[in-house]
Amino acid sequence: MQNTIKVERAIKNITQDELAKQIGVSRQTINSIEKGRYVPSTILALKMAKIFEKTVNEIFKLEDTD
Amino acid sequence: MNNTTNKIIECERKKIHQLFGFQLHHKYKLLGVIIAISGLCCLFIFRMSAGEAEIMREVFRKLILIGLLMISISKDKVEDEMTITLKAQSYKFAFICGVFYAIIQPFINFGVAFLFSHEENNELLQLGDFQLLFFMLIVQIMFYAFLKLSR
């Protein structure tokens, strides 16, 4: 699954640590999600979408292999 | 199903969820390390001083297991869904390793005893509960640490 969290963070000008604190996870979790090593739960995806003021579909996209 | 039955089922479900989610506070991790190391040192000193009281050896073994269990079930500094997932993976891996260990280890013991021991009585040595639990807890703790580092 692809995601645009890094881009969205850059637009909002927030660090991984700040984003992690806002949604109540560790910085490593944000890093893992950004790199595609961890697929977040629906709740976490919705929390991110709320912070970035986008829909979940705009941030996360399925790949052909998914 | 009537309303009362539904309420009972819902109550049971909540209790099971609470039970599954049980974890010790982060500070217990350090306490677990101290207990496990103390138990290990005591066992080592006891063996070196040629102590033969089986009860003491058993107490030190239990201390080690309690310490390792505390490390295993205590929370991380920041506990989130990824750490919970990684812990679940590490428990699964440790369980599978434990089963294989329990199957293979007696044969390895037998092989070693057969090759290097001069005694005639080379029976299949059964695996003790301490040995197996110690192995599984160590595998779980180390595999969890490895998974966290590799993320």
TrEMBL record, chain A:
Quote the Pfam families the UniProt record gives: HTH_3 (PF01381)
Question: What is the top-level taxon of the source organism?
Answer: Bacteria
What InterPro entries does the database record attribute to this sequence?
Cro/C1-type_HTH (IPR001387), Lambda_DNA-bd_dom_sf (IPR010982)
Q: In what residue span(s) does the HTH cro/C1-type domain sit?
A: 5-59
Write out the entry's keywords from A to Z: DNA-binding
Note the PANTHER family from the entry: HTH-TYPE TRANSCRIPTIONAL REGULATOR XRE, TRACRIPTIONAL REGULATORY PROTEIN-RELATED-RELATED
Q: What is this protein called?
A: Helix-turn-helix transcriptional regulator
Q: Say which species the protein is native to.
A: Echinicola arenosa
UniProtKB/TrEMBL annotation, chain B:
Domain of life of the source: Bacteria
Regions crossing the membrane: 30-49, 93-118, 130-147
State the UniProt keywords alphabetically.
Membrane, Transmembrane, Transmembrane helix
Q: What is this protein called?
A: Uncharacterized protein
Q: Which organism is it from?
A: Echinicola arenosa
Q: What is the lineage of its organism?
A: Bacteria, Pseudomonadati, Bacteroidota, Cytophagia, Cytophagales
